[in-house]
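In this section we walk through a basic example: taking a raw amino acid sequence and producing a predicted 3D structure, encoded as discrete structure tokens. The instruction is simple. Fold the sequence below.
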Amino acid sequence: MAMDGKYNHLKVEENVYSGWVKSGYFTAGDMSKRPYCIVIPPPNVTGKLHLGHAWDTTLQDILCRYKRLQGYDVCWVSGMDHAGIATQAKVDARLQEQGISRYDIGREKFLEHAWAWKEEYASTIRSQWAKMGLSLDYSRERFTLDEGLSQAVRKVFVDLYNDGLIYQGERIINWDPQLKTALSNIEVEHKEIMGHMYYFNYKVVENGQNLVIATTRPETMFADQAIFVHPDDERYKEIIGMHAINPANGEALPIMADDYIDMSFGTAVMKCTPAHDPNDFALAKKYNLPMPICMNPDGTMNEMCGKYTGMDRFECREALVKDFEEAGVVDHIEEHMHPVGHSQRSGVIAEPYLSKQWFVKMKPLAEEVLKNQEIEDQKIHFVPNRFENTFSGWLENIEDWCISRQLWWGHRIPAWTNNETGEIYVGMEDPVDKENWTQDEDVLDTWFSSALWPFSTLGWPEETSDLSRYFPNDVLVTGYDIIFFWVARMAFQTRYCMKNRPFKDVLIHGLVRDSQGRKMSKSLGNGIDPMDVIEEKGADALRFFLTTNSAPGMDLRYDPTKVDSSWNFINKIWNAARYVEMQIGDTKPVLNIEKASSVDKWILARMNETITNVNANMEKYEFGIVGNELYSFVWDDFCSWYIELSKATLYSDDKEAVENTKAVLYTVLQTILKLLSPFMPFVTEEIYLALPHEKASMNLETWPEVIPFEYSLEEQEAMAMCISAIQTVREIKVNYNMKPSEDLEICLSVAVNEDTKAILNKMCHATVVESLSGDVLTRTIENAVLTVAMDALIDLNEEKEKLIKEIDRLGKEIKRAEGMLSNPRFVEKAPEAKVQQEKDKLQNYQDKLALAKEQLADIEKKLG
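The resulting token sequence is shown next.
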């Protein structure tokens, strides 16, 4: 298959992916190989994939492709999440557009609509995965509501319940009045907003004294049950045990004392609303106070609120304060900046709300995880490791997890109440006499099933071959924003169910932001659809940009110019491959390392160095460093230098040398394709198949290995000198307005062979001579001094200024190097190779400085 024309990503990507999948390249199960497992963070079935998902799945795909080429049996399970709250909201909205309420059609019919939604958007997600080139094992695809995972969820719930780790109780929970469901603490986002602190007058019944009590939520006053002061507060000791009138409803509230009250805050008098505040709830439990609720689940006021009944909670606040002002109840009102919890799902202000819910007792589960984080072969390793502190800190301060949700779409809680006795039954099977029992209406928090993902997707609770082979997973790739939501929950659920860690490593990435560093959001209109980028620039350009432009744990700024740079890089590779194809034709050339020229050895040595560096950084998940390494080697060493240098041989009469150089071109390009294939699978596959190849696909190839050969220090220095000489001659010609094709005689301070002379003549039109007469221009290059006969072209004063600047620069470099080498911390802690590198640099700078000073002295002598 010949490469024709310019690089066209749409043509390159067309039908390639479906061929890979049909050929089974991504299906795990080769028992002769070492297992390697990654389970995809499941996208939810609410819509299109976002750029963040494109980022973490591409990182995973890179690892999977890398490990396959290394000879691993890679199991990358594909799958999706049912996303209870978000999906139900989407399905509700679609039904409302049709004039239908879910309550009109009932639970079962609603679930039919929800499953239809799931199938529609699952198909969209698979299509987008294909466009991104993800090498997923679709034969193992899972869904958090499929039959197998439903069994796993049910078993975990039952086991936790039987072990006393799941309980049902009344607690203050976060309530979403729009979606009418409970939220866990980490589903609530606290935002600083400007509100008000309202100071109201309360009259003490027994003595007529006036108390000023502050609140930010006047609408909850209808559910007040007491007033609290501190027992040691001299201002209020005499009124403890008395009563004060609630101005909202005229009820007499007992005045009680508790040392919870902060005597330095406000008026140090606090009203207690047990059903609408977690701290008030704790006080009410302590003193056995009633806990009435004054608000409906939809955020409107209930019958406790008199004339305000039916009002929205915030409308009630406004009306009540207005009435208080007219009645003289308001002492004063202050503006008050404070954090207010918002539902991450709907965006509305969450309401602290007393409700009977199901909870997981978290302390015992968290303690097991923390204990095992101290054991090296059981701990989860975070990359970067600073996120382990984030992870551990949250577990150390964990609260019980509210797991029930007032939804229809999700795993229905396997708990039944006997209609006659009120007995609670929790079990794997439905009650035998089901008609005498009522199942709990609620479903489980989506994260309950997602927390089982690392092992339930492999067949648990059954003892499957996949589970024994691929668990624990090798690595999870995810963003730092869901360490609490997902990573921690997988850790404690896996420890509970499997007595193991879910994965060995967690690679953490940041958030994708816009070019100004802002979080992408609908309100700002700065979101980027990855499918639009793929349509315009191709999947390979997007993948290379996403994975090589930030370090682990850091945010990524989306910059279209950098996507363009990635596209240009791919185009450079394409053009280089076309050149190689034209040189070698349809026959694979055979490399004879013994016949390699100095130029050939140079590029092969750089190739070996690149392989070594890429391997080391791939294992450390440093994909940004890998990207820079590959970019430099491909663009600079291979395209800019070797391809040009090779022309001197390719256009010579030495047939043996010509054939060997073709073999080197082919060998290096093949290595480049393999090293880049995890990052840009489409274009590397296209080029691989266009060149002579042994496998049906790049996916079946092996990871490149270093080619051993003798490459002496003398040869290395000679090649470094040759390249430096070419660069210097070209620079001189630019500085002195000479044409690139203009011949120039040069003299070198070291002897060079005929091959080097030919290269210099071919690459920069420079002829090496034994000596030069008249005025000369001298330049220090790598391992030599280059002198040029410039005659009248030299401006000695200008040359003097250049040398002065060069002497200043070298002096600064020497000072920097000496500073590093005189620092005991650097010398003792840095790798030995790094220290030696700095010593070599220092010596090189010192040698160049001495020569530059000699040259300056010579010019000053000529100038008189």
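Looking at the output, two observations stand out. The mean pLDDT is 92. The radius of gyration is 36 Å. In the next section we compare this with other chains.
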